[in-house]
Design goal:
This protein is α/β, with parallel strands linked by helices and 724 residues long. Helices cover 28% and strands 17% of the residues. The protein is built from 22 helices and 26 strands. Strands 9-14-13-12-10-11 form a six-stranded mixed sheet, sandwiched between helices. A five-stranded mixed sheet has the order 17-25-24-19-20, with no helix packed on it. Helix 1 packs across helix 12, helix 4 packs parallel to helix 5 and helix 13 crosses helix 19. The longest helix has 24 residues. The termini are far apart. About 1% of the residues have low confidence.
Length: 724
C-alpha cells in the first residue's frame, strides 16, 4: 500500500499540508492557482475552485438565498449580536449551497466558500455610490459590526472555517468611483490611523479574518494592491496577519494602464506579488511566468502566496473526509428556510429609522382608515428592496404589497407610481411628468398618503455595475433625483397627511420634507421582506429603534471636495455645520429616561480601565428596544481630535415602566488620541463621557426632546505611547 502524501494527511497542520501540496506543483501550476478562477490539477486530485464569492447581506449572485437588509441598513441596528447572527445564517446557507453544488459538479463563480465580505471602508462622503455596502461613517461602529460579521461568517469550530470572510477594500477607499482606477487618496498619518485603519486592524487582530482585499486606488502614491506600506509594513509585520490577500477585480492591470507606476504587465504582477498580494481577481497573474523569467519575482515568493491560498482551502475542509468536517453536512433545505426568513424580517424591522413623527402621527390605526394612497417610484420596486451584491429571494414584499397585506378588506389601497426614479417620464413616448395626474388623483381619494421615494442600486453603486446619468455610481448631489421632489410637493398640495418612506443607501438632503412632511421613515434597502417591515412600523406592530449610521446633511453645498480625504469637516466627528439628522439619531414610539452616569472613579491613572453605568427607564406607553450610545470627548488634547466619538453601544428592551442598568468599560485605547505623526498616545487631562439615545449635539437634543447624561473624569500620570 503506497504511503499517503503529506498534503492528504489529516493529522498534520494545514500549513504543513499546504507546503507539501505546493512543493508538488510545477511553476505553471502554481501561477494558475493564483487566479480567482483556479483550474483543477487532476494529477494531485486538486479540484477547480473559483475564489470569487459574495455575501454582503446574504449569499449573493448564486440563486435563491435569504436577502437581508443592505449593509448600511444592518448598521442602523447598532447591534453586534444581530450582525453575528445574520452572518452565521449567511455562512450556513453558503455551506448548504456549496455542498449541493459540489455534488452536482458545479464549481462556478459565486458557488464557493470564500466570501468577499464585509466592506468595512468608512463612508466619509454621502456622495460615494458604494457607501451603502459599508457600516457607515464611524470607525468604532464599523469595527464592532465588522468583527461580529466576520466571526459569524467564519464560525466557531476549533479546526475548520465555516466560510472565509474578507475585509475590503484595504485601504483608504471611498470614491470617487469614476476615478477609482487612477485615483490617489492622499491621507495624513493621523487620519489614516484615526479613521481609515481601525476597523481593518480589529478585523485582523480580533476577528482573525482569513482574507483582506486590496483597493483599486493608490494611497499616498502606492497602488493599494501593491503597497509595501499597507500590505507588508502594516498588515503583515505590524498586525501579524496570517491569511491571504486578494486584489480587487482587474486592479493589477491598473498599475501600468492607469496609475502609471509600472510600465508593463510583468512589472505590475511582480510589484503586487512581491508586496504580498497572493490572489488575482482577474487574469493578470498569468504574466508571473514572464516576470519570473525576467527575474522580477522569485519562485519562493510565488510559493509563499500559493501556500497561503492552499492553507485557506485546507481550513475550509476542501481536502478532508467530509465526515471529519463539521459543516460538510449542512442540509440544502436550510437555505432560505422559514427560520432564516423570520430573522431577516426582524432585522429589517430593527434597521428602520423613524426620522420625524410630528404630533405622534404614527402609528396609524388601520381599523380607522377607509383608504390609503401609496405613491412613488419605490412603492412597488423590488430593486429598492435589494441593494447591490444581493441574492434572489423566494418571495418579495414591496411597500405597497406590505400595506395591502396589512390592512383589512374594507380598506382601499390606491397605488400610483407618480414618476420615474430619475427620468422625467415613466413611458418613453409619454410627456414629462406623465404619472403626476394619477398620483394626485389617488391622493385626493385617500385618508392618508404613503410616499415612497429615494434611490436604488441602479443609480448609487459601483462603477461598472450601474448605468445612470449621474457619476459612475456616485451621486452628484444629495437631492431627490428626477421629478421626485416636485411630485412630493404636488401631492402635499392636496392637503392630505403624508408619511414619507425614503429608500436609499445613503443620506439625502430632504430639508423641504423635514419642514413640511409630518412623518419620515428611512428604510434603506430593507431586504426582500422590506414591505412587511415598513407596514409593521406604520401600523404600530412594534416600536422603531434604528439609528442613523451616517450623518444626513442639509445640502450638498456644505460638503468638502469629494476627492479630499482629509477628515476636516467630515462626518459627525469633525463636521462644522449643524446636521439635518445627526449620526446616531432615531425616534421611538415610547420615551426613555436616563439617570446619572455612575463612574467608578473621578480620577484614574494612565493605563487603567474605567467602569461606568447608567439606569434607563421606559417612561412611555410602548414596549421598545433602545440603542444606548456612549460618546467620549478629550477636552484637553494636544492635537485636534474629534469633538466627541462613539465608544460604546448596547441594545436593550424595556416594557413600559421597567428600568435596567447598562454598564460600559472604557479602555486606555478608547482614551488615547492619534497624534499628527500617527502615534497612539495617552495624555493626562480631563475627559467627558455622554450616555443617551443619541449624540450630545444640540440638533439631536432638539429632535428627540431627550437629554443626554454627562460625566467627567481625569486621567493622571505621564503621557504614554500605546501600540496602535
Amino acid at each position: 500500500m503506497s504511503e499517503i502524501p503529506a498534503y492528504k494527511n489529516q493529522a498534520l497542520s494545514f500549513e504543513e499540508r499546504a507546503k507539501d501540496l505546493v512543493s508538488r506543483m510545477t511553476l505553471e501550476e502554481k501561477v494558475t492557482q493564483m487566479l480567482h478562477s483556479a483550474p483543477a490539477i487532476p494529477r494531485l486530485d486538486l479540484p477547480s475552485y473559483n475564489w470569487w464569492n459574495e455575501a454582503l447581506h446574504g449569499v449573493a449572485r448564486a440563486g435563491v438565498a435569504t436577502v437581508f437588509p443592505q449593509a448600511i441598513g444592518m448598521a442602523a441596528t447598532f447591534d453586534e449580536d444581530l450582525l453575528y447572527k445574520t452572518a452565521d445564517i449567511i455562512s450556513t446557507e453558503g455551506r448548504a449551497k456549496y455542498h449541493e453544488n459540489q455534488r452536482k459538479s458545479d464549481h462556478g463563480i459565486y458557488k464557493g466558500l470564500t466570501f468577499w465580505s464585509p466592506n468595512i471602508n468608512i463612508f466619509r462622503d454621502p456622495r460615494w455610490g458604494r457607501g451603502h455596502e459599508t457600516y457607515g461613517e464611524d470607525p468604532y461602529l464599523t469595527g464592532r459590526l465588522g468583527v461580529a460579521f466576520i466571526k459569524g461568517i467564519q464560525g466557531n469550530d476549533k479546526k475548520y472555517l465555516k466560510a472565509a470572510a474578507c475585509a475590503k477594500h484595504f485601504a483608504v477607499h471611498s470614491g470617487p468611483e469614476s476615478e477609482r482606477h487612477s485615483f490617489n487618496a492622499v491621507v495624513s498619518k493621523k487620519d489614516l490611523r484615526e479613521t481609515y485603519l481601525p476597523a481593518f486592524k480589529e478585523a485582523v487582530q480580533e476577528a482573525d479574518v482569513e482574507a483582506v482585499m486590496g483597493a483599486y486606488n493608490r494611497t499616498n502614491d502606492e497602488p493599494c494592491c501593491g503597497s509595501r506600506m499597507l500590505l507588508k509594513e502594516i498588515l503583515r509585520e505590524e498586525w501579524g496577519f496570517k491569511g491571504h490577500v486578494t486584489s480587487d477585480c482587474w486592479a493589477i492591470k491598473d498599475f501600468h494602464e492607469h496609475h502609471m507606476v509600472t510600465r508593463t504587465a510583468p512589472e505590475s504582477v511582480a510589484l503586487a506579488v512581491n508586496s504580498g498580494c497572493d490572489l488575482n481577481c482577474g487574469n493578470m497573474y498569468i504574466n508571473l511566468l514572464i516576470a519570473h523569467k525576467e527575474g522580477l519575482v522569485s519562485e519562493e515568493v510565488i510559493d509563499q502566496s500559493v501556500t497561503r491560498l492552499m492553507t485557506t482551502r485546507m481550513k475550509l475542509g476542501m481536502f478532508d473526509d467530509p465526515e471529519n468536517v463539521s459543516y460538510a453536512h449542512t442540509p440544502y433545505e436550510v437555505n432560505s428556510c422559514k427560520e432564516h426568513l423570520d430573522f431577516a424580517l426582524d432585522m429589517a424591522k430593527k434597521s428602520l429609522v423613524l426620522l420625524k413623527n410630528e404630533k405622534g402621527m404614527l402609528p396609524l390605526d388601520k381599523n380607522k382608515l377607509n383608504s390609503i394612497a401609496v405613491i412613488g417610484p419605490n412603492a412597488d420596486s423590488r430593486t429598492a428592496l435589494e441593494g447591490n451584491y444581493c441574492g434572489t429571494a423566494n418571495r418579495y414584499t414591496t411597500i405597497v404589497e406590505g400595506i395591502q397585506d396589512a390592512v383589512g378588506e374594507n380598506t382601499r389601497v390606491y397605488y400610483a407610481q407618480g414618476c420615474h426614479l430619475y427620468k422625467d417620464r415613466v413611458q418613453g413616448l409619454g410627456e414629462s411628468k406623465d404619472r403626476f395626474a394619477e398620483a394626485i388623483a389617488v391622493a385626493e381619494r385617500a385618508d392618508v398618503v404613503v410616499m415612497c421615494l429615494g434611490l436604488d442600486a441602479t443609480i448609487e453603486g459601483e462603477e461598472g455595475d450601474v448605468s445612470n446619468e449621474y457619476a459612475s455610481g456616485d451621486k452628484l448631489h444629495l437631492n431627490l433625483p428626477g421629478n421626485q421632489q416636485e411630485l412630493l410637493e404636488a401631492v402635499h398640495k392636496t392637503g392630505k397627511p403624508i408619511i414619507l418612506v425614503l429608500l436609499s443607501g445613503s443620506a439625502l438632503a430632504v430639508t423641504w420634507a423635514d419642514q413640511n412632511i409630518p412623518s419620515i421613515i428611512q428604510a434603506w434597502y430593507p431586504g426582500a421582506q422590506g414591505g412587511k417591515a415598513v407596514a409593521s412600523l406604520i401600523f404600530g406592530e412594534y416600536s422603531p429603534s434604528g439609528r442613523l449610521p451616517v450623518t444626513f446633511y442639509k445640502s450638498t453645498e456644505e460638503l468638502p471636495d469629494f476627492c479630499d480625504y482629509s477628515m476636516k469637516n467630515r462626518t459627525y466627528r469633525y463636521m462644522e455645520t449643524e446636521a439635518l439628522y445627526p449620526f446616531g439619531y432615531g425616534l421611538s414610539y415610547t420615551k426613555f429616561e436616563y439617570g446619572e452616569i455612575q463612574i467608578g472613579k473621578d480620577q484614574i491613572s494612565i493605563g487603567e480601565n474605567l467602569e461606568c453605568s447608567i439606569e434607563i427607564k421606559n417612561i412611555g406607553n410602548w414596549a421598545s428596544d433602545e440603542i444606548v450610545q456612549l460618546y467620549m470627548k478629550d477636552i484637553e488634547a494636544s492635537v485636534e481630535v474629534p469633538r466627541w466619538q462613539l465608544r460604546g453601544i448596547k441594545r436593550i428592551h424595556l416594557a413600559p415602566g421597567k428600568e435596567t442598568e447598562v454598564c460600559f468599560t472604557l479602555t486606555p485605547r478608547m482614551m488615547a488620541l492619534i497624534d499628527n505623526d500617527g502615534k497612539t498616545v495617552l495624555e493626562p487631562g480631563m475627559f467627558e463621557v455622554y450616555i443617551g439615545g443619541s449624540q450630545p449635539d444640540e440638533r439631536s437634543l432638539k429632535l428627540t426632546g431627550n437629554d443626554v447624561s454627562k460625566a467627567a473624569f481625569e486621567l493622571i500620570g505621564n503621557a504614554a505611547e500605546l501600540e496602535y
